Predict the structure.
Amino acid sequence: MYITELSHNNENIINKIFCGNCIKIMNKLPKEIVNLTFLDPPFNQQKDYSLHNDSMKEEDYWKMMEDVCSSVFDRTITGGAIYFMQREKNTEFVLQTLRKTGWTFQNLIIWKKRTSAVPVKNKYGKQYQVIVYATKSSKANTFHRLRINPILPANYKFARENGIYVTDIWDDIKELTSGYFAGNEAIRTNNNQRFHKQQSPLALLLRIILSSTNVGDVVLDPFAGTGTTAVVSTQIGRKSISIELDPANVECIKNRINNIREADNIQKYYENYICTENLSEIWGIPTNIYNLNVVNNSNLFNVMVN
Ligand SMILES: C[S@@+](CC[C@H](N)C(=O)[O-])C[C@H]1O[C@@H](n2cnc3c(N)ncnc32)[C@H](O)[C@@H]1O
């Protein structure tokens, strides 16, 4: 099926991977069908992408981001959410872009990397990325206050009774670094190289999707890369729409979804949120039927090429 044939029947769109430019594709999708969007675009930092120019003029790059945010806004239901991830030095541009396109700022999340800081001359080393959480309208219509139970600081005498609420500083999620330390989650080529250096950790998407959606909601990822958003969404009963420019990545997403690897099984994170009220309802599918073959249906995720 080609993108020009899209009808307003959402069944053509839900749980699909679209291959092409996200702005063109999103502009053809029906309005107000999305509950949550995760935006992890290339950061315009001269990285090597096979089909995307990561060395754009700053003004062209931010004009493109404005078009993306505006199209996502139109596709989002009132009270829906966006999480826009960027380098910390671009925070002001992210905030500006979201404001200009109608979004209401909620939080500036600091994702503190668990790796050592990147050394910089003449200023402090860099150790975090920002994720701006914003909503369409003044407040979210879905926000679950997740609770976690991180290791107690050394000076704490007593264990907590029931964990703590997640705040806007996320320092408990490991990024997939290069080399051996990226672990099993990182997808590798036959010669053991990382398939996609910007692959996001499952744990990051899990926190975002659990916080800002309910079972059955629609999650959009316009820069899908290896499909982490869809891989998480499908395991917790959310619907997904993935868009990716590079056909090689689209093929990777298709394989990843249809044959979910043990390393992609998100059930291992359930315990981390056990202190959360109504966790089983938010999580969706009970642990004991968490057989990943549920998504092993080649018709569930179809690739559409424009
Ligand atoms: C930072 S990566 C996203 C990684 C993703 N979060 C993951 O977990 O794998 C950005 C992706 O956007 C894709 N891309 C770049 N320009 C695009 C465009 N205009 N439309 C759709 N995808 C695009 C790139 O090919 C790349 O895979």
